[in-house]
Write a structure and sequence with these properties.
It is an enzyme of class 2 (transferase). The protein is α/β, with parallel strands linked by helices and 230 residues long. It has a single domain, classed as P-loop containing nucleotide triphosphate hydrolases (Rossmann fold, 3-Layer(aba) Sandwich), CATH 3.40.50. The protein contains 9 helices and 10 strands. It has a 5-stranded parallel β-sheet with strand order 2-8-1-9-10. A hairpin with a 2-residue loop joins strand 6 and strand 7. Helix 4 runs parallel beside helix 8 and helix 7 packs across helix 8. The model has no long low-confidence stretch (mean pLDDT 95).
């Protein structure tokens, strides 16, 4: 079976990572969560007092990029790779609402994007990869054989994210999560460098009323159709 590159873009909390993991497992492809990479950089900035509610030391973060080492390490027990920042497993830390509040600001920095996009393109040079993020089909892999763009209403996405955080024991309100979703949508679509847009050849999927199984089946059919044509 021929190997392809699958690019999954879309708004926050649309289940991009869940779908990408399902596809990677089914196809025996490499899965890369680019959002985790940007979250790790945001977490680094928070830990080093480079970003906060009232400040962002952008130039200091740019200078510190050389000191940031990101890598994915496969966890056999979980069945997917986890994010490591400078040798430390930060998978849990980067998924908090606090990091979510800063990740779009950090991701808008051109120097950060350049560093991470270079790494992402290197990861996918041999195809057989599923990568999700905000600019995979437009910037990272503009020639990907299959591009998916995922969307859902802000309220639906906020409820999903709220339920997820509650299950983890995080003390957050639905209103706080909804505000985060709306704010991130605006920042992701209005940043100067690589804004979130639908690639001309992407297939848009609104999963507001789809469950994970229905969505997976639909996209797997798209994968099979693409593979047959190359």
């Amino acid at each position: 079976m021929k190997k392809i590159t699958i690019a999954i873009d879309g708004f926050s909390s649309t289940g991009k990572s869940t779908l990408a993991k399902q596809l990677a497992k089914e196809l025996e492809y490499v899965y890369v969560d680019t959002g985790a990479m940007y979250r790790a950089v945001a977490y680094f900035a928070m830990q080093h007092n480079l970003i906060g509610a009232e400040f962002f030391k952008k130039e200091a973060l740019i200078e510190a990029l050389a000191d940031i080492k990101l890598e994915f390490r496969f966890n056999a027990d979980l069945g997917f790779a986890e994010m490591y920042l400078n040798g430390e497993n930060v998978e849990k830390q980067i998924r908090t609402i606090e990091v979510s509040n800063f990740v779009s600001t950090v991701a808008a920095v051109s120097e950060v994007r350049a560093k991470l996009v270079e790494q992402q393109q290197e990861m996918g040079k041999n195809k057989a990869i599923v990568m999700d993020g905000r600019d995979i089909g437009t910037v990272v892999f503009p020639n990907a054989e299959l591009k998916i763009f995922m969307t859902a209403s802000a309220e639906t996405r906020a409820q999903r994210r709220f339920d997820e955080l509650q299950a983890k024991g995080d003390n957050v309100s639905y209103e706080e999560v909804l505000k985060n979703v709306v704010d991130r949508d605006y920042m992701d679509t209005h940043r100067a460098d690589s804004p979130l847009v639908i690639a001309d050849d992407a297939i848009e999927i609104d999963n507001s009323y789809l469950n994970k199984e229905e969505q997976f089946a639909a996209v797997l059919e798209l994968v099979n159709d693409v593979v047959k044509t190359i």
